[in-house]
Amino acid sequence: xxxxxxxxxxxxxxxxxxxxxxxxxxxxxxxxxxxxxxxxxxxxxxxxxxxxxxxxxxxxxxxxxxxxxxxxxxxxxxxxxxxxxxxxxxxxxxxxxxxxxxxxxxxxxxxxxxxxxxxxxxxxxxxxxxxxxxxxxxxxxxxxxxxxxxxxxxxxxxxxxxxxxxxxxxxxxxxxxxxxxxxxxxxxxxxxxxxxxxxxxxxxxxxxxxxxxxxxxxxxxxxxxxxxxxxxxxxxxxxxxxxxxxxxxxxxxxxxxxxxxxxxxxxxxxxxxxxxxxxxxxxxxxxxxxxxxxxxxxxxxxxxxxxxxxxxxxxxxxxxxxxxxxxxxxxxxxxxxxxxxxxxxxxxxxxxxxxxxxxxxxxxxxxxxxxxxxxxxxxxxxxxxxxxxxxxxxxxxxxxxxxxxxxxxxxxxxxxxxxxxxxxxxxxxxxxxxxxxxxxxxxxxxxxxxxxxxxxxxxxxxxxxxxxxxxxxxxxxxxxxxxxxxxxxxxxxxxxxxxxxxxxxxxxxxxxxxxxxxxxxxxxxxxxxxxxxxxxxxxxxxxxxxxxxxxxxxxxxxxxxxxxxxxxxxxxxxxxxxxxxxxxxxxxxxxxxxxxxxxxxxxxxxxxxxxxxxxxxxxxxxxxxxxxxxxxxxxxxxxxxxxxxxxxxxxxxxxxxxxxxxxxxxxxxxxxxxxxxxxxxxxxxxxxxxxxxxxxxxxxxxxxxxxxxxxxxxxxxxxxxxxxxxxxxx
Length: 730
What we know:
Layout: H1 10-16, E1 29-30, E2 37-38, E3 74-78, H2 79-85, H3 90-94, E4 100-104, E5 110-114, E6 117-118, E7 121-124, E8 127-129, E9 148-155, H4 159-162, E10 169-175, E11 183-191, E12 195-205, E13 212-224, E14 231-246, E15 249-263, E16 270-271, E17 294-309, E18 315-336, E19 348-373, E20 376-396, E21 422-441, E22 447-466, E23 475-494, E24 499-510, E25 525-538, E26 543-555, E27 557-563, E28 570-575, E29 578-592, E30 595-607, E31 626-635, E32 643-652, E33 655-661, E34 666-672, E35 675-685, E36 690-697, E37 705-710, E38 713-716, E39 721-729
Parallel strand pairs: 7-10
Antiparallel strand pairs: 1-2, 3-9, 4-5, 5-6, 7-8, 9-10, 11-12, 11-39, 12-13, 13-14, 14-15, 15-17, 16-38, 17-18, 18-19, 19-20, 20-21, 21-22, 22-23, 23-24, 24-25, 25-26, 26-29, 27-28, 29-30, 30-31, 31-32, 32-35, 33-34, 35-36, 36-39, 37-38
């Protein structure tokens, strides 16, 4: 396999040479009973730091490292960034993150990609959570962000800590922690399309000594949309307690509960072709959904951890997590077929009902600390992780065919509610167990070597049992993989007090449940991920910059080739020799006092063994090869220091979708050209308690497609929109 060669371009040198001032090396000290890992004033916690970067994170290896000390490309979305951009959901945060692109399935589902590959690894506080992709049984990127302190995104393969997953990125959502000092806030937001939102947050000590601390966050949103007859209500209730049982023992317990209730949920987007083969031109506001169409979700997570300080600065930690998800989905969408150009008739409904109840239990136990070898101090973490989920639910008969009544030009979502009779049941279980080890060796003051490995077991079983007379055969899908070894290696060499060279390698292993045309499950995806680059930490780590070159090689990657006409399930084929290579540049932090920036450029080119473009799954699309994401804020000086102004530019290159054309009798390729979006913000800090923030998104009202190829339809991105947030800090 080819190895990535390091080559430093003039643009990268300019980016990484912003300051000639040398920064002192970052050092971390874990203090049990507090929420920070200190690093020259910046800790792991980003709340109240006003920073666009963090001092330490552990998502990549389990070891508390600074961004510069982590031998992979890292992006951190801090609490300040989320507040400046008016972020309400995890998806809001990801859509403008450097190195990440977005494509929409429909009104409720979004796919995010990094390095040209879909992101399927999501975590809360380092604990893996289920991801179902197109089927949307657990829409992680729609989770409310009010309870999040920061989002750590590790680019590339992360099998050491996640076990399995695509080599795109891992998104680790780090929850807010209680504070010892009292703090509270309440905010209200109003926005375009009758959007209303309220968030309350209160934290502090529950005892005079401060050994017991608590925090509660509540959020409620109610909004309509630029889409006709679409609305959504969301709520979040988050509570967490920390208790110092002794000077050496910290107990944490929390509950995270949320629900999402949309109406007018579309299933796919708009038809692309008329019956005569010409292109349609539906407005951005057009919603193909019935007004009763919905995807209702209720999630509740209980989590707990116990941290025990041991002798010689070692630490023992056990984390327990139980997540329960209930979903009830009833969809009807006038998206099927190709309308008559003159009359608008001839369309048919995509519709159906799905529901399920899932419980996932996860446990992680690890021990970590320093050790001495060869007269030098090094670090080690050893852990065991186990996760098991079980999902059950009923299946429903969706075979009844219905044409869209009248002309699609007159469609307003008015359709009688459909009764989808039960015709069976299903059960799905999934387990992953793993033992992991990682160590950071320091042969010299300037050289660090990180070595790690994970030994994993994967199990999956899926059974569909249909009622007599349903006309469907029972099905069974399963896989079992034992003794899967995932090695990890990284090296960091400090050129001086500011710059470091690094390189890393990890293997890729991803079990699949996708089926081929014969109904057989595809073999796991396997491959290798290489990365090398240069990192810099300026101003004592308050500004971080990186340049990364990467190469990803995979075999067995699933590509969509159609849909089973009976079951509506996708049909896939395995692609060998898939190669992704590219470069990333990123800058995040404080350029000067009061001036924050987050900026990045990514080039990622994916081709198969025949040098052909690869279309993703389940969306039959490619990913944009070039992306630029920038955002900056500046607090004005002098008498205007109560005013902060900011803005951002996002640009991405063209991407392509496969759309079936009935007149042509084959799949055609359509293109969304490159486009630029501009966002603006301004904040006025009236006094120490009251602030007003205005956000304007897509200020030039760019019209663009953000989804291609989902059941041969397209989906438009949001038009220009505004929001005003008023916040009172007690």
